[in-house]
Amino acid sequence: MIEVRKKGERIEISFPYNPDHIAKIKAVEGYRWHPDEKCWSLPYSELK
Predict the structure, then answer these.
(1) How many domains does the chain have?
(2) Phi then psi for 22, rounded to 5 degrees?
(3) Superkingdom of the source (predicted)?
(4) Which of 2, 4, 14, 16 could form a disulfide with 39 if both were Cys (CB 3.0 to 4.6 A apart)?
């Protein structure tokens, strides 16, 4: 299961280990791994 949450100016994403998902996240500029929370975050932006 993939969990997605908006936290301030970022989107937090957590999921069981999956190298394909990780590769896609790492393709996004500004990604971060948060080891204590065991989640990834990406910059949030709205489509205009």
Answers:
(1) 1
(2) -65, -40
(3) Archaea
(4) 14
